Amino acid sequence: xxRNDLKSMEDKTIDKLQEKPAxxxxxxxxxxxxxxxFLRDENIHKIMHTVVLAxxxxxxxxxxxxxxxxxxxxxVSVVSCLLTEYAVQKLREKPVTMWDGSAxxxxxxxxxxLPPGFPYYAAALGSAFAIGIGKQLFGGLGYNIFNPAxxxxxxxxxxxxxxxxxxxxxxxxxxxxxxxxxxxxxxxxLMKFEGKMTSHLDMLFGNVxxxxxxxxxxxxxxxxxxxxxxxxxxxxxPLGYLGSMAVFGGIFWLINPTKYPDPxxxxxxxxxxxxxxxxxxxxxxxxVTPLGQxxxxxxxxxxxxxxxxxxxxxxxxxxxxxxMNAFVPLLDKHTRPKFFGEEM
Amino acid sequence: xANNTLWHEFKKGLxxxxxxxxxxxxxxxxxxxxxSVINGIAMGMATLFVLLCANITVSAIxxxxxxxxxIAAYVVLIALYVxxxxxxxAAMFPPISKALGPYVPLIVVNCIILARAEGFAQKNPIMPSxxxxxxxxxxxxxxLAVMGLIREIFGFGSILDIKILGDWFEPWxxxxxxxxxxxxxxxxxxxxxxxxxxxxxxKTETVCH
Lengths: 344, 209
Hints:
By secondary structure, chain A is an all-alpha fold. Chain A has 15 helices and 2 strands. The two termini of chain A are 32 Å apart. The relative contact order of chain A is 0.10. Chain B is mainly alpha-helical. A two-stranded antiparallel sheet of chain B has the order 1-2. In chain B, helix 4 runs antiparallel to helix 5 and helix 5 packs across helix 6. Chains A and B meet through helix 7 of A and helix 9 of B.
């Protein structure tokens, strides 16, 4: 916001400059302002809508693999997020910022983590929780401790444990869409409970059972790389997280290759890709210092692998990110770089 | 006038000093045992009984107990009444006793009881202490019942084990988990604060006019 204010202040000054005669122009050109002096033409709207654009491939993949119901779920989640944002901000008598795009992203991300056969009312409930409790209760955008979409997903996991773990095969495997679709196990569940491996190629393109948006690794990767190209995400976060999962997963794989999956499986399966590119990189809930970011992603990857291999759940990405989110204020506080000459 | 103060001692426990939401005391049983209405009421009644007995005794012996050992004396007394309540529940209502688990014996360390003994009964005669115990105890029971009501409706779709929501309702499992207790508790504290701020605003308005 401050940047915007500064920006608009400068705009005004420039407008004034153009009106004034030449002599005064010379004097007024001395604009006194505090740093930063180089301003980019960017604001919350623009960043958020670019993220929505980056999520398009993943959304398209989910509709391709799971049918129009996937689009319906995304729509329900987004609408519910927007309405909740509007309602809470009206109730708290705060300026309504429902169109700044952040609620849309929360809705899309939450929908992408749900199984395709998930009921609409439950998706609406989860979205309302994500925005109402996960974000607005903490004070709105920028003040939330946890990633709202993941918090909504965790709430749904605790509220409807059966519905959130009922997966169906993708349409491309020749089954009917909707709630009646044949239930199927995700690659991670197959690995954990039945000891079966899924082909890497199927996981890369998304031809497997799973949450709507997380099955197609390549679609997410395209979106993530686009965000990186636009400079909205720090490469340390997604690559560090995936790298940490691959390294720690790889250590167990080397110990016992028949029992534990290989590193590539780890980063292609489940929510690893979606989490690494769109949730770990959440600007609000990730650390700002370089050391803090490294610790954040390394510990997060380790936690995800531990939960996957030894925990009670097949997938650990969600809880690993949420747990690490809780540590972000602490990481930021203790990894602050020293001023020159400062004693710690 | 005397009746008025007695009535005041009773009334304050129901809203102004309602234990879990305004004093934020006794939150442990409030969060732990309120997954159904009946558990909440049973827990509240057990606490009410202990609170009443403790307040009466503490008030009666307030002049003979030396100040230095008063807390120890109160705890022994409270432990006595808790044992009675625990055994009574176990003998008469075994299923409820089982559901409440260790939380009935834990009434001994419930802050409400010691706080009322230390903060009220040891300074006041028996009658006000009785009214205080009744007010706070009933306020506590009501709070637990409301918590239990909300959690039972959402968590099981029922009230007092009678199904009120049809088969279309998919129970919110989270509501009967500890996390749900914190959500409901937070919302109720916020609601009570909101209402009392509103009330206060009205009062000052009438004073102004």
